[in-house]
């Protein structure tokens, strides 16, 4: 009896969102496979540290894309925003602290660059939001266009060459291990996740996002300032993309207009994999975070097999995305749920 | 005459034509090189591949979706074809490569169609997935490398010209490729299909309102499936033409063209939400983008401004059509009452 009272809510929680359940199961299977096949890598701390340095790049982008997809839009410009802001802040840093500058000047440059990058990211995102909400261009086209635009600006600033020669202080801060083991990018990612969780589940803004995504007309008639809401959502996505740009800047120790070209697909893949409905209105943060982790573990696992070429990666990402689409549709029709003994929510 | 004028001034194509004329005159004034025989032939030459792609993208857009997989699809089907032919030491004519890419394109298109017709997920997201499957198959499974020597038939087709235009001042010559006829053929065929067949009218109907189209008796699923088969074929033809004209197979050469092509179609006035658009507009949109890209050098703007210019073009083009759409929606109730 004791067992049933404590277990039922847990089971309820686990089965409430089938995506989250499924992802959790997949993650456990993946980790078990990893542990059995590549035991040495699995128990080495370096494996996990290198993962924690990598995934915040696209993980942060995915968080932004998630918000835009919940309101029924999409943000394909995240990679453009990330590269543009990374190049902008790299240029700024090198202007404030040219090679040979002393360390206080270097730290000043770092602080200025981070602030600059986040502000430009917010402006770029707000620009997206403005075009979508006020000019009423579909989000897909706006962000395809601004992706070109932002990448174009990045190319113009650098003339197509990588921007490098950052002050050493930047690399120093970003390469720090908190408590000796936790890499800085992971800290940034966790911080960003907490902020977005509070936004989504503890503020009116979050509730309004879901309302807007389920039915824009109804949301407008209920008195929501939809235009304002859309602009703020894309602004948040822009800020997250610029944070991703800062992490990329640290990881490559340089910035270039065409870094991370596969991340657009990856971010969309993560969000759809995490159970966010591309038509808006539903999806949970926990699903998206799990999806980020699943993909990073899968990617690191692939890395440990030297005979699998890197070129297979797009094939695997694309295949996973298509598989998720198929499985999601089946769940909706109740085929998979009935298979797993869950309650099917037939449309 | 007045009626014709009124119709003209209402159409998006008319304004696009005015913009093209204005841009041409500006470039002519700044460089004095625009209205020369060889520059015009160069433009026609540069329009072949994006033009053929644009026809396919246009058809998908009319049906209410955005396809971003066609460059990857074309690369894969042309790479497979070239690889097989080169390995087999094929020396025959151009007909076999054509047949092979059409078959390969149809199969890959069917793969797209299978997903897009059955799953209620935006075409953009599905084709993002299939595009990366296609390029993954090409680069991973086929271990694609540059193929410098094409079969003789393909090289010959790529070199063959309709006529040669010479600039009387500078003495520069430009060749009008035979491949231009393929663009003309594809456009003509698409025109007939879109205007006079149930399939074509079905695409407009689906793009306008999918459930209304189904109620009206269109077989929505079937039409969507065959749409992607057709688009796969069209895209593969464009890929074959590009490869033949470059006289080498460069696997990743086409990738990344999707944005420019979609921009061209949208500039041409095809509504992004589906249901409207004309081939004339699509071709004019492509022409405008090709002019802008080709003429930056003539006017003396560094080429790295290209991405920026393309982004601005997309946003301005879609912005104008979005504003028009909002206005016409606002006017609609008044019309009903009046």
Brief descriptors of the model:
heterodimer, A: 347 residues, mainly alpha, two-stranded antiparallel ribbon, 16 helices, disordered N terminus, disordered C terminus, B: 338 residues, two-stranded antiparallel sheet, 14 helices
Characterization of this structure:
- The complex is a heterodimer of chains A (347) and B (338).
- Chain A is mostly helical.
- Chain A has a domain of 209 residues.
- Chain A is 76% helix and 2% strand.
- Chain A is built from 16 helices and four strands.
- Chain A has a two-stranded antiparallel sheet. A two-stranded antiparallel ribbon of chain A has the order 2-3.
- In chain A, strand 2 and strand 3 form a beta hairpin.
- The longest helix of chain A is centred in the middle third of the chain and has 31 residues.
- The relative contact order of chain A is 0.17.
- The N terminus and C terminus of chain A are likely disordered.
- Chain B is mainly alpha-helical and 338 residues long.
- Chain B has a domain of 229 residues.
- Chain B is 74% helix and 3% strand.
- Chain B has 14 helices and two strands, in the order αααααααββααααααα.
- A two-stranded antiparallel sheet of chain B has the order 1-2.
- In chain B, helix 3 crosses helix 9, helix 3 crosses helix 12 and helix 7 packs across helix 11.
- Chain B is globular, with a radius of gyration of 21 Å.
- Chain B starts with a helix and ends with a helix.
- In chain B, 47% of the residues are buried.
- At the A-B interface, helix 7, helix 13 and helix 15 of A face helix 6, helix 12 and helix 14 of B.
């Amino acid at each position: 009896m004791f067992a049933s009272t404590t277990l039922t809510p847990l089971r309820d929680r686990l089965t409430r969102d089938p995506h989250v359940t499924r992802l959790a199961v997949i993650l456990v299977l993946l980790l078990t496979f990893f542990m059995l096949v590549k035991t040495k890598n699995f128990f080495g701390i370096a494996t996990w540290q290198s993962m924690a340095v990598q995934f915040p790049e696209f993980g942060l982008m995915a968080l932004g894309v998630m918000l835009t997809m919940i309101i029924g839009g999409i943000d394909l410009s995240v990679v453009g925003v990330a590269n543009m802001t990374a190049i902008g802040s790299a240029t700024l840093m090198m202007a404030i602290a040219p090679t040979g500058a002393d360390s206080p000047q270097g730290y000043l440059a770092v602080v200025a660059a981070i602030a600059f990058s986040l502000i430009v990211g917010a402006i770029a995102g707000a620009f997206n939001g403005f075009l979508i909400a006020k000019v009423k261009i579909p989000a897909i086209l706006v962000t395809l266009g601004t992706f070109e635009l932002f990448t174009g600006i990045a190319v113009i600033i650098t003339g197509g060459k990588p921007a490098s020669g950052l002050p050493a202080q930047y690399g120093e801060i970003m390469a720090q291990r908190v408590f000796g083991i936790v890499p800085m990018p992971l800290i940034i990612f966790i911080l960003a996740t907490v902020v977005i969780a509070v936004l989504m589940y503890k503020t009116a803004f979050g509730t309004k996002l879901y309302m807007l995504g389920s039915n824009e007309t109804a949301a407008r008639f209920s008195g929501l300032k939809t235009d304002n809401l859309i602009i703020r959502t894309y602004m948040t996505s822009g800020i997250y993309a610029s944070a991703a740009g800062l992490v990329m800047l640290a990881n490559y120790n340089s910035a270039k207009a065409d870094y991370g070209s596969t991340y657009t697909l990856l971010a969309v893949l993560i969000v759809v994999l995490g159970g966010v409905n591309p038509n808006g209105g539903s999806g949970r943060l926990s699903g998206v975070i799990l999806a980020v982790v699943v993909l990073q573990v899968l990617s690191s696992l692939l890395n440990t097999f030297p005979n699998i070429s890197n070129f297979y990666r797009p094939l695997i990402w694309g295949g996973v995305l298509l598989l998720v689409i198929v499985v999601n549709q089946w769940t909706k029709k109740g085929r998979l749920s009935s298979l797993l003994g869950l309650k099917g929510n037939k449309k | 005459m007045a009626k014709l004028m009124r119709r003209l001034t209402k159409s998006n194509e008319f304004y696009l034509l005015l913009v093209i004329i204005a841009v041409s005159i500006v470039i002519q004034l700044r460089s004095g090189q625009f209205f020369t025989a060889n520059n015009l032939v160069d433009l026609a030459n540069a329009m072949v591949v994006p033009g053929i792609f644009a026809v396919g993208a246009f058809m998908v857009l009319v049906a209410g979706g955005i396809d971003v997989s066609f460059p990857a699809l074309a690369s894969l089907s042309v790479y497979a074809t070239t690889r097989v032919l080169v390995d087999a030491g094929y020396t025959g004519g151009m007909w076999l490569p054509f047949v092979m890419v059409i078959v390969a394109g149809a199969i890959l298109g069917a793969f797209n169609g299978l997903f897009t017709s059955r799953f209620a997920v935006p075409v953009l997201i599905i084709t993002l997935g299939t595009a990366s499957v296609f390029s993954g198959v090409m680069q991973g499974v086929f271990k694609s490398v540059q193929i410098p020597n094409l079969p003789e038939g393909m090289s010959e087709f790529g070199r063959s010209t309709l006529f040669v235009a010479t600039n009387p001042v500078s003495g520069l010559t430009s060749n009008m490729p035979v491949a231009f006829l393929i663009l003309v053929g594809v456009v003509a065929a698409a025109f007939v299909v879109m205007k006079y067949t149930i399939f074509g009218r079905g695409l407009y109907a689906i793009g306008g309102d999918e459930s209304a189209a189904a109620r009206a008796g269109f077989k929505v699923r079937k039409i969507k499936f065959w749409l992607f088969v057709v688009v796969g074929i069209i895209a593969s033809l464009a890929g074959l033409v590009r490869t033949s004209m470059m006289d080498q197979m460069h696997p990743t050469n086409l990738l990344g063209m999707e944005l420019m092509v979609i921009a061209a179609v949208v500039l041409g006035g095809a509504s992004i939400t589906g249901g409207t658009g004309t081939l004339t507009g699509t071709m004019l949109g492509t022409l405008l983008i090709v002019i802008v890209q080709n003429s930056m050098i003539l006017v003396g703007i560094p080429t790295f401004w290209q991405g920026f210019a393309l982004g601005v073009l997309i946003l301005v083009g879609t912005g104008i059509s979005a504003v028009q759409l909002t206005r016409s929606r606002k006017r609609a109730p008044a019309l009903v009452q009046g």
